Amino acid sequence: MANSIFAKRVECLDESATFKYSALAKNKIDLTIGRTNFDAPTQIKEATKDALDGGKIFYTKSRGIVELREKILEKLERENKIHNLDVEKIIVSVGAKQIIFEAVMALIDRNDEVAIPDPSWVSYESIVRIAEGKVVWLPLKAENGFIPDEDFFSVLENSNPRLIFINSPNNPTGAVYSKKIMERIVDIAERKNSFILSDEIYEKIIYEGRHISIGSMYENTITVNGFSKEFSMTGFRLGYGACPIKEVIDKMNLIQTQSVSCATSFVQYGAIAAFSEDIRDYVDRMVSELRERRDFLFENLKEIYPILEKPGGAFYFFPKINSDDIEYCDKLLENGVAAIPGSPFGPSGKGCIRISYGGSEINDLRKAIEILKSIQM
Ligand SMILES: Cc1ncc(COP(=O)(O)O)c(C=O)c1O
Fold first, then answer.
1. In terms of DSSP bridges, do strands 163-167 and 195-199 run parallel, antiparallel, or are they unpaired?
2. Among 99, 228, 234, 260, which residue has the most ligand 1 atoms within 8 Å of its CB, making it the best to mutate?
3. Which pLDDT tens digit goes with each residue over 1-35?
4. pTM above 0.85, yes or no
5. CB 3.0–4.6 Å: which of 145, 171, 194, 249 could bond 309 by disulfide?
6. Which CATH number describes the domain made up of 42-278?
7. What is the CATH number of domain 8-40+280-374?
């Protein structure tokens, strides 16, 4: 738009494709959503209500309450083998998304290169654009199940990224990266002195393979995680970041103090219950239900879309459809199914669609399969 009254940083942004297509999903079988249809664990809801009734209603420390950061610290050391941390090297905020935003704002200047796997969650590119950084897409292929291959590593090797995004298990592809892949990424990052942002929000939603935290291998890593997916708490808005280099978290915290101030006080207190042993049952039940949905869908989807690997984690399929993804999703909508076109997830997403099974039970998935089978394009 000529002579726009708005700043250039918003002119280059599009509405998040996931929000846009979710809004069109009313009265359809909704395969767009980035969460599960499970209720949040009772223990966390009760603890949050108790905190609210108990007067935990004021600003907290900007980085988050120490009791919660202590639990996060323990978890990152024990489960993720990330060392050289302490509570000051951990920051809690209003969702993993805000943590990612703060990390990019703290590290990226105009024209700094940021390497992003292609396809990737839509917000990575937008956040880098707000920071005026330069996106370097690292191409991935449906044929390889979107696991990094020689083309991916060759583009990474030939770039000079200040920051590399890694997200395993992955949105939108469901891919889980092995230790070998992580080691190759670390080798390049080390030589180029790049930071890595490891988005581990789907850590616990994994069916095959083992989750590897790249922060256990490489100090210049900001590990990002949260409560949205594992505990179906997207509306609580709570996530965290950790980095052994304290200055990184200090700078992210500066942005936090001058923007959201802190995460919601009673939500932070409630989230302490997420670290109790008895909550593991909840996660196990959810993952086993999601695994059934994944297996059911895979058996059926591979007949419709021949180029499809079984995803090892998260709750998405990202099949190649062999036609225009936007036209295809519009056609699906006309027939009662909502899914998200692949192109907003990056150049390699063109000609793919994202199917989420987080929010739909097998019965609905069965109906969706019938409709997908009937679409000819
Ligand atoms: C890969 C990825 N990272 C981060 C987020 C954001 O999570 P939160 O709700 O904690 O902001 C999402 C949500 O969809 C996601 O898919």
1. parallel
2. 228
3. 457 899 888 887 877 767 778 889 999 999 999 99
4. yes
5. 145
6. 3.40.640.10
7. 3.90.1150.10
